[in-house]
Design a protein that fits this description.
Blueprint (H helix, E strand, L loop, with lengths): L5 E4 L9 E5 L10 E2 L50 E4 L23 E2 L11 E19 L11 E7 L10 E4 L7 E17 L11 E2 L1 E5 L8 E4 L5 E4 L36 E18 L12 E7 L10 E4 L7 E18 L17
Length: 369
């Protein structure tokens, strides 16, 4: 378990501001939070990118989480973890082969998505859309052509992104790919999105109206830090929409006490407080924040945060549009909510709208020694 401290980044971009993120224990909930930016260097959560996908260098984190010298810091976009993602296509071949869109996310380069060619061949263009099931910063799509065969290699393409799967706007990238089997990294300006759509306009070798892909990966924020420095939380305070004080010490202040055995829990004695529940950290100064890292409680399962949003404020009264949203898995692993934009803020608020296991806002089972 990491120390319960707020962690700040020493600029992955040489002129970037100091970035801070926050990690909380359980919501509904019990928490043991600390603010921190997740490392995206070696050992990070994302899978290893395909060889040759990009060749930036990542700064090494010091054993004391020290600040790496600026000359050692190079921006590198992490490959995002695809757990829970889904893929759909404008059409897919399911009669003469397993060419389903879902194959681009299975981690097996021998399987593939292929446009429909049995019966009436589906004409170009073909689209395949990845739904990450949460909004995050994206900066590139890595396209791996099929490993066996050449038909359907994508030639001319465009990439579009969306936060809701309905409004797409203008393409964020367009171009023409070489007719070979190498992985292609299709970069664009970093921006927040939940859906990423690849549109194949032509087949690379003009062999026919087909499109195919073995794997699709998405790269995240190239400004995510590779090195962090611990900052003291002296003077910080935490408040919640409600807290349990009768049947246990579930005060919001516990998320800042440095003791992972204590927690904040929403009120369940008397009249149970309904969802949503919020917990707000006041850093008592305004700084640039970039992510929230959430640590669920370790001594039970009730109250693990499922659906959530993160909002920020400079005055504690006006909270803008969410800087992060999504749904976390029902387990006790650390979760990171990367903001869609860096926010200058004093207050960080985590709002939980659904409990991860749908166990409800009712009282927890008794604890046993």
């Amino acid at each position: 378990m990491q120390p319960r401290r707020i962690r700040a980044l020493a600029g992955a971009f040489r002129r970037s501001p100091l970035l801070i993120a926050l990690a909380l224990g359980s919501l509904f909930v019990g928490l043991t939070p600390w603010l921190g930016v997740a490392s995206t260097g070696p050992g990070g959560r994302g899978p290893t990118p395909p060889p040759g996908a990009f060749d930036q260098q990542v700064a090494q984190q010091s054993p004391h989480h020290g600040v790496a010298p600026a000359s050692a810091m190079e921006p590198m976009a992490p490959v995002l973890d695809r757990t829970g993602w889904t893929a759909t296509a404008s059409d897919e071949e399911t009669t003469r082969e397993n060419g389903r869109a879902a194959n681009v996310l299975d981690g097996d380069s021998a399987t593939l998505w292929h446009s429909r060619y049995s019966g009436t061949t589906a004409p170009l263009p073909h689209t395949i859309t990845v739904d990450m099931h949460r909004t995050t910063v994206v900066s590139a799509l890595v396209y791996q052509p099929r490993a066996v065969g050449i038909n359907g290699r994508i030639g001319q393409y465009s990439i579009s992104v969306s936060t809701d799967g309905r409004s797409w706007g203008s393409p964020v990238a367009t171009g023409t790919l070489a007719d070979d089997a190498s992985a292609k990294t299709l970069s664009f300006a970093p921006q927040g999105a939940r859906f990423v759509r690849l549109t194949a306009v032509t087949e690379a070798g003009n062999r026919g109206p087909w499109s195919s892909a073995a794997e699709l990966n998405i790269l995240g924020d190239p400004g995510t830090p590779a090195a962090t420095v611990d900052l003291p939380r002296t003077g910080w305070t935490a408040t919640a929409s409600d807290e349990e004080t009768t049947r246990e010490n579930g005060r919001a202040a516990n998320v800042l006490d440095g003791d992972s055995a204590t927690l904040w829990h929403s009120r369940y004695s008397g009249t149970t407080a309904p969802l949503p529940h919020t917990i707000t950290v006041d850093m008592h100064r305004t700084t640039a924040v970039s992510a929230l890292v959430y640590q669920p409680r370790k001594d039970g399962i009730n109250g693990r945060a499922g659906a959530y949003t993160v909002t920020t404020s400079t005055d504690g009264t006006t909270f803008g549009a969410p800087v992060a949203s999504g749904t976390w898995r029902d387990d006790d692993t650390v979760k990171t909510a990367t903001f869609t934009r860096v926010a200058n803020a004093r207050y960080i608020r985590l709002t939980v709208t659904r409990e991860a296991g749908n166990r409800g806002p009712g009282p927890p089972p008794p604890r046993y020694a």
